[in-house]
Amino acid sequence: MTDRSTATVDQGSNGVPEDPWTPFRDQLLAEGLLVPTGVDGLYGRSGTYESVADAMDRLVLRVGADQAASSVRFPPVMPWATFERNGYLESFPDQMGSVHTFRGDERDHAELLRRTEAGEDRGTLLETTDMVLCPAVCHPLYPTMGGVLPDGGRRVEVYGYCFRHEPSTDPFRMQAFRQHDYVYLGTPDGARHHRDLWLERGLEVLSGLGLEVASVVANDPFFGRPGRMLAANQRNEELKYEIVTPVYATQRQTAISSSNCHLDHFGSPFGIETPDGEVAHTSCFGFGVDRITLALLHRHGPDPDGWPAGVRTQLWP
Amino acid sequence: MTDRSTATVDQGSNGVPEDPWTPFRDQLLAEGLLVPTGVDGLYGRSGTYESVADAMDRLVLRVGADQAASSVRFPPVMPWATFERNGYLESFPDQMGSVHTFRGDERDHAELLRRTEAGEDRGTLLETTDMVLCPAVCHPLYPTMGGVLPDGGRRVEVYGYCFRHEPSTDPFRMQAFRQHDYVYLGTPDGARHHRDLWLERGLEVLSGLGLEVASVVANDPFFGRPGRMLAANQRNEELKYEIVTPVYATQRQTAISSSNCHLDHFGSPFGIETPDGEVAHTSCFGFGVDRITLALLHRHGPDPDGWPAGVRTQLWP
Q: How would you write the pLDDT of chain B (317 residues) with one tens digit per residue?
């Protein structure tokens, strides 16, 4: 889920150019909905913020109740091997959160303390582990799905934390955020159908919450020159759609959900097959729970008790 | 929350020494409660497993409803600065999950891909960020609490993911796990009282779930030779208690909750003060939600529908 719109730069009241999100961010911090940690894109969230995120999570489950989907939850870190094999290392290296640790002795430890005290680089004293922060909530699922799928494919719902290294003061661009996905694994037609079904449902659910939404063809921010071709291809084949909503005084379009047709991108490396022996296709629809929470706070104000009755009934039936 | 008991090594049926947790782990995997990821201590969890963890989370909230605690949730990564300033880097460097990323160009990227393909070390091509995986759920809280506390101190409940780099096949020793804490910030007496109160409540809640529990003085696994002194001191001053329960055929004692008196360990570096200008003391009690879930599955069997009515009523009132 990404938003490639160009930020408009306004003049703040003190004459210094102001990011378009500054007033909204200031409000979130003043109301205590977000708690700053000192790292851009990393926040504590208040009980009120979380009550909206939790309500959204439960709404997603109600909306998907007819899907006979199995449920699985993964921790926020996943195997590096998955990251390497599913092509993420190749396409989005700059967004990674690789997990490193310390395996030295007391002498190395003393040097580590000295370097951090002196503000010197500690990187070379730390070693890689076999883990990486999970970049998309459905990624840990595919390696566990190897083998032959049942007739009609499989549907799985997954909820959890994702990490993308893209520090920003824009509250919509958190580095650690939550995504609630409905994943399909099966035939090419099934994958397209799943994507279309959920894109429609997503628009319905989100407009039912009083958000002005539209679906637009999109692309992921692939790395480097070869990435530009991959991005163009993704757009041409309409493999990725985002549901966007206008935020800030600039009406900047921000993605709050997205759908992806992966073709055989995951089926192939992880040996997922249809009953007739073809490589499985997969697709997923992801509700961006933190971005939706922020969009609701932006649209309806910082106090959910005062939100329109129709919106409250959807979230807290 | 740590368990320093020595594992007893049994002979498995095939004559190969078997870890005491192997039969339980095999059962969890066979029932699909845990889904292996290929990395020790990192699992997907089924809907059934999560229904117990969620019920435990809600039970903890009901038990603490009289505490007038505020709520905050932090993401699974926190600022490196917090990690450095709160002494964790000094005391537990070997458990860290430091977050590194890629900031190179296309040429570096090609080399990164070549090295991973060849199985060579990628570490030197990645750079440190200002983040680390959160080692204890209450750690991100303290830097946000700087300033003067109200009379009577503050109580905060925090729930979320922790990470400790200690790969193990013992399901009770996950690398990424969830902890639900009640934290107190205020006077030294208040901190002791909070600890005592919650240790008692914890024992009551957990024995009410049919678990055989006891509280024992404990210590954290401090690093290196100086660490041995710190650990001895922590025990002598009875700063840490764990609630333990016997698991496996060996009746091995495993910690499923813990309480800590931090003295001024967090108050001092983060400038937290009592109204009379003293450095605040803090204490916390943490329910180890994943370990409790596992202990319940171990004690009552893999199907929560079949658990004793009294246990079910506590979890799903």
A: 333 333 344 444 566 678 999 999 999 999 999 999 999 999 999 999 999 999 999 999 999 999 999 999 999 999 999 999 999 999 999 999 999 999 999 999 999 999 999 999 999 999 999 999 999 999 999 999 999 999 999 999 999 999 999 999 999 999 999 999 999 999 999 999 999 999 999 999 999 999 999 999 999 999 999 899 999 999 999 999 999 999 998 999 999 999 999 999 999 999 999 999 999 999 999 999 999 999 999 999 999 999 999 999 999 99
Contacts of A39 in chain B (CB under 8 A): 78-79, 130-131
CATH number assigned to the domain comprising residue A234:
3.30.930.10
Residue B271 sits in the same domain as residue B311: yes
Q: Are residues B167 and B273 in the same domain?
A: yes
Cβ pair B71:A84 closer than 8 A = no
Per the CB < 8 A criterion, the answer to whether B261 and B183 are in contact is no
| Residues from chain A contacting residue B225 (CB–CB below 8 Å) | 106
B127/A123 Cβ within 8 A: yes
B205: domain range?
4-97+135-315
* Closest-CA residue to B261 (of B187, B167, B173, B180): B187
**How far is the C-alpha of B259 from the C-alpha of B182, rounded, in Å?**
9
Minimum CA–CA partner of B75 in chain A: A176
**Domain check: are A163 and A296 in the same one?**
yes
Regarding an ipTM greater than 0.90, the answer is yes
pLDDT digits (tens, 9 = 90+) for A81-135: 999 999 999 999 999 999 999 999 999 999 999 999 999 999 999 999 999 999 9
The pair of structure tokens assigned to A13 is 């009241």
Q: How many domains does chain B have?
A: 2
Q: Give chain A's largest Cα–Cα span.
A: 66
- Mean pLDDT computed over A134-156: 98
* Size of chain A, expressed as the number of residues it contains: 317
Single-letter amino acid, residue A307 = W
Contact yes or no for B56/A27 (Cβ under 8 A): no
Residues of A in contact with B54 (CB under 8 A): none
Q: Are residues B225 and B124 in the same domain?
A: no
Query: Chain B residue closest to A94 (CA)?
Result: B102
A chain contacts of residue B44, beta-carbon cutoff 8 Å: 72-74, 140-141, 144
Q: In terms of Cα–Cα distance, which of B296, B307, B314, B286 is closest to B205?
A: B314
pLDDT in the model for residue A9? 41
